[in-house]
Q: What sequence folds into this?
């Protein structure tokens, strides 16, 4: 029994393990210092999932600040333009519980439209636009570049004459539209060819 | 003849080609009016260059190509333009059929540029179905070396006989068209792939092959099986080459053309005749005189069917294209376009509507027939669940939408409809994602600009204060109540400099790799980095000044 118990054995084990700990600790320290990243990669990933409307409805000035706040532990459900899909994507990414959306979901994509005859050229909306999508100059008519507008509606409040409307974004005919499925009250045996000849449900 | 290799899967649907292939090729009567859509090709629609009331001849350009991938459009009858909208141009015919032709070109002596320009001017697009502009396709040689030109005469879909009749009547012209393309692309071989159900076309080709030069032409007869006319499938079958996923045949040194396109190319070059008509198969049980017709583009489908003796009481649906991949027309008040290769006026008994869909029983029949070796049952599952990551993992975008899986499905699931829908949905999502990315860059640019403006304002303010201070020469208390963080500013300045360099490098690299790509977004990123650098520089200069003024008194 006494052969197996020796102080030397215990001390050498402790010494070796301590030494290994010090070496690996130093290695990790050097590596983390050498390959340090200024930005947080997780914030980038969260930012990529946000819709980038920069609307500020979450209470932060833009999508990136909200991404940083989420990373600090803020709730996931403050983005109405992103809707449920964004909440689920964020919950998947961060391994957190998906919560119901705080606020009203947007039914469709919208863009701002300036009623040009009513515009007085105050440039207030230009200053409010987070993506520089409004062009115009002082005392001259302004207009919105439709392709660049994110539909954030930040230009609505500053307008002193209320000449800005939020209109549905025009979709080109060639763009995909969801197929309208037959209404649920239709049962299988109802699916006969239409009297006109063309069976429309195939299209 | 090299041994034929094989692609997986495939089906043998009833061919039903006899009705249209037995009649001879005739000219359809000249239409009294035509409607020409501005988009009859892939890419951007053309821009009209005529106005209401202009008189045009057959072959006059009525709409110019717009952007990189687009094609010219020509009047297909002589007469007066009666309507120009954003979608189409209508021409009322004068019945004179006066032509406007370009001068004839001898392709053997003509230069490359001259030939490309002729294809461009003549509005030639791929007549097989996709409608890709031929002059752009011919320019693929600028990036990939082309070894073999494949003439895709397989025409594997049931009913369609347009290519069969083209080859029977114009074998020499088609091969001459192939020689023109071979010259443009420096191809060393021409291979014709044709299914063995077209003996007359094969015989005609064999006779025409004898005096074809300079590039040797090889005729390979392959057994009839659907979908051997798919580009990738035919290349595998003829040359045993696998076109990579997401790639083009040009990646393996092959270019594929349809006989109809080659005939149109030959007409454009030798006769100076732009693409104003094409061969259309009119078939189906509801038509009294089926067959192939030379049809002017823009002819109303209704008039064409009336002329072929359509029986309205028996007619159930009109399919444009073949029964496997074609689409059922919602209205007959639609024109024949560059892409209309076949019109099937089907009766209810001939092509009955699919029975009601039943749940998938996972029999695996679809997997056996898939020519791309995909797993259609899994794709069906994920497409319905809208599981996009899984769809991409199961290579949804490699699906050629041939319809073999739907054809054999014992549960009658419209699988291809699901795949098309899923593809379109994912494409739209990608567009939305790039839009969001673009908005983000614009937002960042604005932030950087505001920061730069703020820094400039501060610098001006400080300069003013310094000027006021000097003449009075009074000792002002140090303004830097907040400690100037010189080191932090220096780091920020260096980081801004590095990001400008990085943005410049990325821009230069992308511009070199693909000069045609839009660089707007990258240019904006560079501008953002430059604005940030300016702001950092100003802040740094300001901080240094403050420090020196602190030290000097």
A:
């Amino acid at each position: 029994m006494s052969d197996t118990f020796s102080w030397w054995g215990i001390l050498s084990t402790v010494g070796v393990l301590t030494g290994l700990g010090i070496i690996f600790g130093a290695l990790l320290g050097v590596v983390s210092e050498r390959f340090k990243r200024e930005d947080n990669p997780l914030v980038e990933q969260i930012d990529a999932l946000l819709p980038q409307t920069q609307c500020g409805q979450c209470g932060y000035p833009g999508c990136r600040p909200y991404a940083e706040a989420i990373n600090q532990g803020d709730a996931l459900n403050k983005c109405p333009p992103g809707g449920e899909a964004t909440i689920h994507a964020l919950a998947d990414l961060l391994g957190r519980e998906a919560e119901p959306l705080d606020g009203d979901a947007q039914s469709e994509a919208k863009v701002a439209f300036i009623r040009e005859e009513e515009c007085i050229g105050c440039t207030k909306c230009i200053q409010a636009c987070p993506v520089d999508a409004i062009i115009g100059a002082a005392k001259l008519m302004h207009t919105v570049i439709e392709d660049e507008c994110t539909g954030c509606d930040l230009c609505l409040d500053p307008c002193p004459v209320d000449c800005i409307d939020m209109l549905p974004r025009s979709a080109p005919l060639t763009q995909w539209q969801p197929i309208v499925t037959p209404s649920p009250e239709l049962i299988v045996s109802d699916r006969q060819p239409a009297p006109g000849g063309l069976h429309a449900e195939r299209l | 003849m090299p041994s034929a290799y094989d692609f997986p899967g495939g089906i043998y649907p009833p061919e039903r080609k006899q009705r249209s292939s037995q009649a001879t090729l005739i000219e359809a009567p000249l239409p009294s009016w035509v409607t020409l859509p501005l988009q009859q090709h892939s890419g951007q629609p053309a821009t009209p260059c005529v106005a209401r009331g202009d008189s045009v001849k057959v072959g006059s350009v009525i709409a110019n190509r717009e952007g990189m991938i687009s094609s010219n459009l020509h009047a297909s009858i002589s007469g007066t333009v009666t309507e120009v909208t954003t979608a189409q141009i209508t021409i009322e015919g004068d019945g004179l059929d006066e032509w406007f032709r370009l001068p004839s070109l001898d392709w053997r002596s003509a230069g490359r540029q001259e030939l490309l320009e002729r294809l461009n001017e003549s509005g030639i697009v791929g007549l097989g179905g996709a409608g890709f502009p031929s002059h752009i396709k011919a320019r693929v040689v600028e990036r990939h070396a082309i070894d073999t030109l494949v003439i895709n005469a397989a025409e594997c879909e049931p009913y369609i006989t347009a290519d069969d009749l083209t080859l029977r009547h114009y074998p020499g012209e088609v091969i001459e068209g192939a020689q023109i393309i071979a010259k443009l692309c420096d191809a060393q071989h021409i291979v014709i792939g044709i299914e063995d159900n077209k003996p007359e076309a094969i015989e005609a080709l064999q006779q025409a092959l004898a005096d074809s030069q300079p590039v040797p032409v090889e005729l390979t007869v392959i057994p009839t099986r659907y979908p051997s006319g798919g580009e990738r499938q035919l290349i595998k079958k003829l040359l045993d080459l696998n076109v990579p996923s997401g790639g083009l045949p040009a990646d393996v040194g092959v270019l594929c053309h349809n006989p109809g396109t080659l005939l149109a190319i030959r007409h454009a070059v030798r006769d100076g005749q732009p693409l104003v008509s094409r061969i259309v198969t009119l078939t189906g049980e509801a038509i009294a005189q089926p067959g192939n017709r030379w049809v002017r583009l823009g002819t109303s489908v209704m008039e064409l069917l009336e002329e072929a003796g359509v029986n309205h009481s028996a007619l159930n649906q009109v399919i444009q294209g073949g029964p496997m991949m074609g689409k059922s027309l919602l209205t007959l008040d639609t024109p024949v376009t560059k892409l209309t290769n076949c019109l099937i006026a089907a009766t209810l008994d001939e092509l009955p509507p699919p029975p009601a869909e039943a749940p998938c029983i996972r029999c695996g029949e679809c997997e056996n027939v898939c020519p791309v070796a995909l797993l259609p049952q899994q794709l069906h599952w994920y497409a319905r669940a809208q599981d996009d990551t899984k769809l991409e993992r199961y290579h949804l975008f490699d699906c050629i939408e041939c319809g073999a899986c739907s054809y054999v499905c014992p549960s009658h699931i419209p699988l291809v409809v699901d795949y098309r829908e899923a593809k379109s949905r994912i494409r739209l999502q990608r567009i939305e994602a790039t839009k969001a990315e673009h908005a983000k860059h614009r937002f960042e640019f604005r932030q950087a600009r505001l920061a730069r403006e703020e820094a400039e304002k501060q610098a001006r303010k400080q300069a003013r204060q310094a000027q006021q201070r000097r003449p009075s020469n009074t000792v002002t208390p140090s303004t830097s109540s907040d400690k100037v963080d010189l080191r932090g500013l220096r780091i920020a300045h260096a980081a801004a400099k590095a990001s400008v360099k990085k943005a410049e490098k990325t821009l230069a690299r992308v511009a070199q790799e693909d000069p045609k790509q839009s660089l707007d977004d990258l240019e904006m990123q560079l501008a953002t980095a430059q604005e940030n650098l300016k702001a950092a520089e100003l802040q740094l200069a300001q901080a240094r000044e403050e420090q020196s003024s602190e030290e000097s008194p």
